[in-house]
Design goal:
13% of the residues lie in helices and 44% in strands. By secondary structure, it is mainly beta. Strand 9 and strand 10 (136-144) form a beta hairpin.
């Protein structure tokens, strides 16, 4: 009878609960401040930015990005060689435990390729970070002309 082994039932319940909640929560990346730069007319690429934090106690490798905008999304970085700056594609990025990966103008960023129609300002684009452990952690990023205002008193600077 089941009542003969009450510990078995408790253990089974615990394992099912851990599998349902623990596995995803531990290894999921958390997005902050994601946004997509409004596209000038006639362009077919857009840039997306934001921060991705790894709250787990194990490193997570981001092996790609996807987006609801455009045919393909790629991770890029800007590198300086002498007085030249050029863009290079990144195939994967590893985020250590408790670390945050920032995609920002002038640095690492996400390029959305082959966009057929520019999204209206204020609409939202889905961005997903794909991890080596087959997880896809997504966020909605508003389309804006410039970065969301930071709350550090340095607003209004134009570069």
């Amino acid at each position: 009878t089941p009542m003969k082994y009450p510990w078995y039932r408790a253990l089974l319940t615990l394992l099912i609960t851990a599998a349902a909640f623990g596995a995803k929560a531990d290894n999921s990346l958390q997005w902050q401040d994601a946004w997509v730069r409004a596209m000038p007319p006639g362009t077919t690429v857009a840039a997306a930015y934001g921060s991705v934090t790894n709250p787990s106690d194990a490193e997570i490798t981001v092996v790609g990005v996807t987006s609801s905008l455009g045919e393909e999304a790629q991770m890029h970085d800007m590198i300086t060689e002498g007085d030249q700056r050029r863009m290079v594609q990144l195939n994967e990025l590893t985020i250590g435990p408790g670390e945050t990966l920032s995609f920002q103008p002038g640095g690492k960023h996400i390029m959305l390729m082959n966009v057929s129609e520019a999204p209206a300002e204020g609409t939202e684009v889905e961005l997903c970070a794909l991890s080596a452990n087959d997880a896809a952690d997504c966020t909605l990023a508003p389309v804006m002309r410039q970065a969301p205002m930071a709350h550090d008193g340095h607003g209004g600077h134009h570069h």
